[in-house]
Amino acid sequence: xxxxxxxxxxxxxxxxxxxxxxxxxxxxxxxxxxxxxxxxxxxxxxxxxxxxxxxxxxxxxxxxxxxxxxxxxxxxxxxxxxxxxxxxxxxxxxxxxxxxxxxxxxxxxxxxxxxxxxxxxxxxxxxxxxxxxxxxxxxxxxxxxxxxxxxxxxxxxxxxxxxxxxxxxxxxxxxxxxxxx
Length: 181
Ligand SMILES: CC(C)(COP(=O)(O)OP(=O)(O)OC[C@H]1O[C@@H](n2cnc3c(N)ncnc32)[C@H](O)[C@@H]1OP(=O)(O)O)[C@@H](O)C(=O)NCCC(=O)NCCS
Fold this sequence. Notes:
The protein is α+β, with helices and mostly antiparallel strands and 181 residues long. The chain has 4 helices and 8 strands; from the N terminus they run E-E-H-H-E-E-E-H-E-H-E-E. The chain has helices at residues 27-40, 55-65, 115-129, 144-152; strands spanning 7-10, 16-20, 71-78, 81-89, 99-106, 134-140, 156-167, 170-180. It has an 8-stranded mixed beta sheet with strand order 1-2-3-4-5-6-8-7, sandwiched between helices. A hairpin with a 2-residue loop joins strand 3 (71-78) and strand 4. It is globular, with a radius of gyration of 16 Å. Bound molecules: coenzyme A. Coenzyme A is lined by residues 41, 43-44, 104-106, 111-117, 139, 143, 145-146, 148-149, 152.
């Protein structure tokens, strides 16, 4: 995984958010985090109990990323608790490695105080620092807050995949959005 300097950001509620790359010891915290956000949001690619990651797998994942300069993960921490996770993951093939795919989530208790903006800015700063030229993402068509956040950060809609997600016997389109750096 690419490394990027740790930073702190003052949130709208006056609390300081620490943003850094994950460490080996964060594995269990990440498993717990995924369990929590999968309960709180219907806008992720996994629901409650659908994430396959155990602590050991999470440890391996963190380790495997260490040697991959085309991937970065950022965890947002308050008082030792992971409250947000974002990542960019890109291929290493020369024709594709200028771009990466973004993922982002924030614990519900912390929505709308600037956490998503801060994590996204951190990832964009990293992408620029390694001369990436494009960030892509997919967002569920009815995820209005996420779409608003991405548009605020400069992302533009580039296309739609019909029946991109299937939740509780209903299909949702996925919107492709992109940011040129
Ligand atoms: C989408 C998500 C990442 C946004 O994170 P966040 O920390 O709440 O975002 P921010 O507080 O930085 O807000 C970003 C922008 O979104 C909009 N927004 C977010 N929450 C909002 C709310 N409750 N009401 C109105 N606008 C809202 C605003 O435009 C805001 O920017 P502004 O405050 O400068 O006007 C978060 O809600 C989340 O994790 N949701 C569940 C998982 C998910 O949907 N992930 C994205 C998958 S593509």
